[in-house]
Amino acid sequence: MNRWNHRGKVGVGTNIGFVSLLMIFLTLCLTCFCVLALSIASKDSRLTERSLDYTQSYYQADELSQETLQKLDLGLSTIKQNINDPSQYYTQASVFLETLGQDARYEEADHTVTFTYSISEKSKLLQVIQINAPSEKTRYTVLSTHTISLPDDLSGQSQNLWKGN
Amino acid sequence: MKGRSKSVGLLIEISISILFFSLFCAIALQLFVHAKTMSENSVLKTKAMSCAQSVADLFRSNEDFHDLIKEQYPNASILQDQIVISLDKDMQPISSDSEAYQLTASLNEEPTETGIMKTAQISVHSESAFLCSLETKKYFPKEAAS
C-alpha cells in the first residue's frame, strides 16, 4: 500500500482528463496553423496564377498591336503608291483606319491615331501612332504605348452622401 | 488499489491520446508539406515568368536580339532560330552543366512587302515540369524608297 501511496504522490497534477485536454488543445493549435498555412499557400498560388494570366494577356495585346502595325504599314504603303497629295493621302488613310478596328480614333489636327487593345476587364493597352506625310521615309511613328486602368463600374451603387444642407 | 487503478487509467488515456495525436500529426505534416510545395511552386513560377519577360523585352527592343542575348546571357547557346539559356534553381543564368531549368526561345521571321514580322515563343521548363510560356511579336517596317 505504501508503494502505491508513494506513486500517487509523484503523480500529483496529472489527473485523468488533463492529458486529454492538453492533447485537444495541441490538436486545435496544430489545426489552426495547418489551415492558416494552407490558405496562405492557396491564396499565394491563386495570386501567382492571376499575375501570370495578366502578363500573358498583356503580351497577347502587344502581339495584336504589332499585327495592327503591320496591317497599317501595308495599307499606308498601298495608299502612298496611288496618292501623292498629302491632304488626299490623309483622307484615304483615315478611311482605311476605320477598317482596322481596335477602336481606332483618328485626330485630323495632328494626324495621330489611337488604338485600344483589351488586356483584362480593368486594363487596356493604348497605342498612339502618328501617320507621317507621304514625303517622309517612314510611313508612321509610334508615339507611345502604355496601359491604362479602367475605373471600377459603380453604376447602381449610389452613395448616400451629405448634400451640404 | 484506488491509486493503481488511477495510474492504469492515466496510462490508457495517455496511450490513446498519443495514438490520436500521432495520427493527426501525420495528417498535419502532409498538409504542411503540401502548403510548402504550393508556396515554392508559386515563387518558382513568378521567377520563371520574370525571366521570360526579360528575354521577351530584349526581343522587343529595336537592337539586334542575338547581340543582346550574347551580352546579357554569355552562357546561352545561340542557334539561328533557337536560343537556349540554362538556369539554376533560383532562375539565375548558369553554364549548361549544372542546369536545373531551361529557357527556350524559338524564333521565327515572316517577311512581308513592307517589313518583317518577327515572332518569339519563349518557354521555361525543366526535364519534368513546365513552368510558363510567352509569345511575343515585333514588326520591323522597311523604310520607304525616296
Q: Could you explain the architecture of this structure?
A:
- The complex is a heterodimer of chains A (165) and B (146).
- The model of chain A is unreliable at 1-11 (pLDDT under 50).
- Chain A has a four-stranded antiparallel sheet with strand order 1-2-3-4.
- Chain A is built from three helices and four strands, in the order αααββββ.
- The longest helix of chain A has 65 residues, at 18-82.
- In chain A, β3 (123-131) and β4 (140-149) form a beta hairpin.
- In chain A, α2 runs antiparallel to α3 (86-100).
- Helices cover 54% and strands 19% of the residues of chain A.
- Chain A has 165 residues and is α+β, with helices and mostly antiparallel strands.
- In chain B, a hairpin with a 3-residue loop joins β1 (77-78) and β2 (82-87).
- Chain B has one domain (2-145).
- A five-stranded antiparallel sheet of chain B has the order 1-2-3-4-5, covered by helices on one side.
- Chain B is built from two helices and five strands, in the order ααβββββ.
- By secondary structure, chain B is of the alpha+beta class.
- Chain B has helices at 2-60, 65-72; strands at residues 77-78, 82-87, 101-111, 115-125, 130-141.
- Chain B is rod-shaped and about 105 Å long.
- The model of chain B has no long low-confidence stretch (mean pLDDT 88).
- Chains A and B meet through α1 and α2 of A and α1 and β5 of B.
The percent of residues in helical segments of chain B reads: 40-55%
One letter per element, helices H and strands E, the order of chain A comes to HHHEEEE
**Strand neighbour order, sheet with most strands of chain A:** 1-2-3-4
Largest interface (CB < 8 Å) = A-B, 48 and 47 residues
Please count the helical segments of chain A: 3
Distance between the termini of chain A: 90 Å
Strand order of the largest sheet of chain B: 1-2-3-4-5
Radius of gyration from the alpha-carbon trace of chain A, in angstroms: 34 Å
Unreliably modeled segments of chain A: 1-11
Poorly predicted runs of chain B: none
pLDDT averaged over residues of chain B:
88
The major beta sheet of chain B can be summarized as: 5 strands, antiparallel
Number of domains of chain B: 1
Give the mean pLDDT of chain A: 84
Beta-strand proportion of chain A: 15-25%
